[in-house]
Amino acid sequence: MTFSDGNPDPTRQVLAWYDRHHRDLPWRVSPAMAARGIRPDPYRVWLSEVMLQQTTVQAVKDYFARFTAKWPTVTDLARAETEEVMKAWAGLGYYARARNLKKCAETVAFEHGGRFPETEEGLKALPGIGDYTAAAIAAIAFQRQAAVLDGNVERVISRLHAVDAPLPGSKPLMRQLVAAMTPADRPGDFAQAMMDLGATICTPKRPACALCPVNASCKALAEHDPERFPVKAAKKDRPVRLGAAFVAVDEQDAVFLRKRPGHGLLGGMTEVPGTDWTARRDGATGPEAAPFAASWESCGTVGHVFTHFELRLTVYRSRVGRAATDGTGWWEPRDTLHDQALPTVMRKAIGLALPDVFAPVAPAAARAASR
DNA sequence: AACTCGTGGGA
DNA sequence: TTCCCAAGAGT
Fold first, then answer.
1. In this predicted model, what pLDDT tens digit does every residue of A188-241 receive, in sequence order?
2. Whether the bond into A168 is cis, omega within 30 of 0
3. In this structure, which topology does domain A10-228 adopt according to CATH?
């Protein structure tokens, strides 16, 4: 089949490329299996899609394996303790995803009889499932002709059509362009093909256009500057915030931990006591800011980069009796410390205070941050 | 519509 | 070193 301009149908070119060059991923049903009518488990599709939100395939693989081993079905996950889910998610980031994951599992298990809705609209009504994830599950798990638009597809589409309008404003246009390409017969394979193409060929820098199945149709390549796309709005600067963290250790090497509020930054995760993180350079980051009196000893500073600010956290350590602490937390034995729902920044802080508990994380970055 | 929300890896 | 960014969602 050819179009009037003489180029092959880009949709079929993309699918044919996917048949040969698709990535093998733990949550994926290969195109050969899909052709034989094998359908992926909607639970595994959903879990992988949520984990992959703004997160690399490499980072997701281990977490996906642990989650599916521990909770093989959505009902298993729905019955789990929320704290156990937060512990299993610790280190993956964007912790609202874990809270919504649990809520979504409960809704599916207890209000939908353990089955996921099969339409985009039904899926999007669930917590943690937005435009992209709803379309991806509908297409991949339920063979619905849904237009799947993620960062990879945005790059491929914006280059194919040389979309000059900047993201995110150009998203509706791009969704329309994807919808026009999405086939009725293999919508799930097509979505995954476009994402694989964006991840392996149509890359942000130095795309391998010579290997691209749709290079003959690509307007950006014809203009000799594919890297110009997608055009994006200017990003804001990342301010620095300062704070202090206090690692209290008792006679048995247990560490005093607290639970953060269930919403906002690192919501629902575990922490060591500390100050607020403020932009003020004259803010209290010394031992006088500690939640309880002790002979606090400075351990140095850890740096940590969040999405919209950079943190420099001064870390203090003290050996204290259990009676010295307030009632806002608990004492966690050092043997079970690494199983807690501690986000990476807290592991860095504890690692600086107690190098034999957590290996110091990213020492180079920590040194840079302390300057 | 513009902010908030993590982390690690690659160039 | 610094920057970018990776299968985005919620508010």
1. 999 999 999 999 999 999 999 999 999 999 999 999 999 999 999 988 899 999
2. yes
3. Endonuclease III; domain 1 (1.10.340)
